[in-house]
Amino acid sequence: MAQGFLFAQEEKYNLYYYGVVTNVNDQNMLNITQDLFFAQLRGIGYLNPQDMRDDSVKDSYDQIQRDQNGDSFFSLVQEQIQDQGGLVFVARIYRPRSDEKWNCAFIVKNLKNGAVASKSKEYDSYYKILTDAKVLIQSVVAQASGNDSLEAGGAQKITSGPPPEFAESGTENIAGSWGGEASASKIILLRSGRGFIVFNNGATMNVTVSSRDNGSSIRIVQRDKFNASFYPEIDRQTILNYAESASPIEWNLTLSKNGSLVGKKKTLVQSGSAVEPASVDVAWTRK
User: Fold this and answer.
1) pLDDT for 6-61, tens place per residue?
2) Cα 74 to Cα 88: distance, rounded to the nearest angstrom
3) Which residues have C-beta within 8 Å of that of residue 248, sequence separation ≥ 6?
4) I need a labelling partner for 37 at 20 to 30 A (CA). Which of 20, 142, 151, 282 fits?
5) What is the Cα–Cα distance from 286 to 265, expressed in whole angstroms?
6) Helix 126-145 and helix 27-42: axis angle, to 10°?
7) Model pLDDT for residues 154-182, shown as the tens digit of each residue
């Protein structure tokens, strides 16, 4: 049994990512959403994701309102994929009317056995889809690939909250897209007091964003469990030794007069052969 389980973990699945089908008209937000979902798929070790989101098949797909299980969409794309053992992934974000809730569904078809797995949820805010996506994506892919034993791992969270003087409010003036971390391709802070950081290596970190002093002091804290990919500057085998003892990565920043965020990042750094806690200077600028 142990050998079979190890094989299941090591087996790589080709996953064909068709992005998001939606009635959302904000192309910039749609691009951010699609990039985030793909980065989260790239962070799943047993996948080999193929980016198919620019495929012209979406131009002929007009059944988003009725196609809740993805049947019509999959019938359009299946003939283009020669891989009979891969997975096809599409996200469906639909809002019937402007005053109704958002519905987000992640749908995956296993081309080997024809089974379709889906996870869906309703949201009051579009931004909550982004902060909730990681666990749902891990779950639906695990179900579709048969790696259900890996599903629970994606739901573990660090529950460290803000200290009493901070609050997950007053973050409206910093909501948006930021840059400044050499190892990160995207930093997104949301009005809800949540956010995420997409690393160049494909890992995605969910964060809690809180503020004090009318939003001038910002505290950002890692919400996810330990991930060696959050420390790309440190040798992977070395940083894995700190999986049980590492504190959540934390940023304490101040909003400057020119609109940038400057301050300190509490993390682990490598010094020779040793790894030690450190407070590193950082500066973020709005994109």
Assistant:
1) 334 457 889 999 999 888 787 878 888 888 899 889 888 899 999 998 767 777 77
2) 8
3) 158, 160, 221, 222, 223
4) 282
5) 18
6) 30
7) 434 444 556 656 665 567 788 888 999 99
Residue type, 158: I
Give the tokens for residue 8: 């299941």
pTM over 0.90: no
